[in-house]
Amino acid sequence: MKRALITGITGQDGSYLAEFLLAQGYEVHGIKRRASQFNTQRIDHLYEDPHDHDPRFHLHYGDLSDSSNLTRILSEVRPDEVYNLAAQSHVGVSFESPEYTADIDALGTLRLLEAIRFLGLQETTRFYQASTSELYGLVQEIPQRETTPFHPRSPYAVAKLYAYWITVNYREAYGMFACNGILFNHESPRRGETFVTRKITRGLANIAMGLEDCLYMGNLDARRDWGHARDYVRMQWLMLQQDAPEDYVIATGQQHSVRDFVQWSAAALGLTLAFEGSGVDEVARVERVAGPVGPGGQAGRRDPADRSGLFPAGRGRDAAGRRHAGTRAAWLDARDRRTPDVRRDGRRRPRHRAPVRDAARQRPRDPRGLRTIARMRQTGGMPA
């Protein structure tokens, strides 16, 4: 049985990758940070009691800032594959916390690679580094490919550039099977709510439910290549199944604007929007909808540093047999992306209700589900 170690397992990509690898028959180990609040919502459905016979899903406390901790975990697990997905991944936050971003995103990758080398695992362990299309920044050519020069424009992108080149360095200097995956934007219902796609879907859903009356946006005409995270983690795995290590650009090959995403999300909720004005004065008003709603979303300032011309043409087709991963229907239709109701042992798992927002107090009410999860954690039923 193959064994994989995933950093960032509690995130969007980490949770989908864990699901995929378990389905492939892997034993999966994940590293999670200690937090004062529960941070395992995306992987709670994968949890296995460590006292059960032969569990295949394991969690370890750790942090990319702690080299001794990483070395100990790698020594205990001795994985066949390491997927480094952990990062401070928000571009805007990287301007507020540049040193922390560099410590985790840049030096954290170095700590992992050096631990693999120090333990003598470079001949047996394959390494995947989650890189980003933010490396291209001020684009030098359209479309982008693996040979396109980088021009990062944020502390996050600069830190990821170091991680990219240190991965290449360890591949060339020590013969490690180490790959960079330059992934363009990929979304899902598990995407963090500070990212634009979830900001849009959550904001419009609140408007449709009468909980908010306005959604403020930045540049509606910014264009992005969006795919689905479930498809992209499969590409990550495929990179480590190749005969030789290479770096790959992964994307759908299709661009859409933020305005398009707003309109698709509104349509999925039954909202009809009418745009009026231009620039920072542009407003989209809700014209028709069933149920109580307020006015539509208002366009905010345009971001002068916003990327333009990002359009990929990578060799991902060679690695996976296809490049076009995901469609807009796949990102927006959460009905096909729900948490499984049945566990791998065939038993039906209890279904937990999501917290309901109290419009008057704006606090989550929990009639049943989350308290059950909290009690299970407190009694040792699942990891905190």
UniProtKB/TrEMBL annotation:
**Cofactor(s) listed in the protein's UniProt record:** NADP(+)
Write the protein's name: GDP-mannose 4,6-dehydratase
* Biological source species: Salipiger mucosus DSM 16094
Assigned protein family: Belongs to the NAD(P)-dependent epimerase/dehydratase family. GDP-mannose 4,6-dehydratase subfamily.
Sequence ranges of Basic residues compositional bias = 345-354
According to UniProt, the reaction catalysed is: GDP-alpha-D-mannose = GDP-4-dehydro-alpha-D-rhamnose + H2O
One GO molecular function term of this record is: GDP-mannose 4,6-dehydratase activity
Comp. bias (Basic and acidic residues)? 333-344, 355-369
Q: Which domain of life is it from?
A: Bacteria
Which residue intervals define the domain NAD(P)-binding in the entry?
Answer: 5-288
Keyword Cytoplasm (UniProt): no
Its EC number is: 4.2.1.47
As for what it does, the entry says:
Catalyzes the conversion of GDP-D-mannose to GDP-4-dehydro-6-deoxy-D-mannose.
Enzyme class at the top of the EC tree: lyase
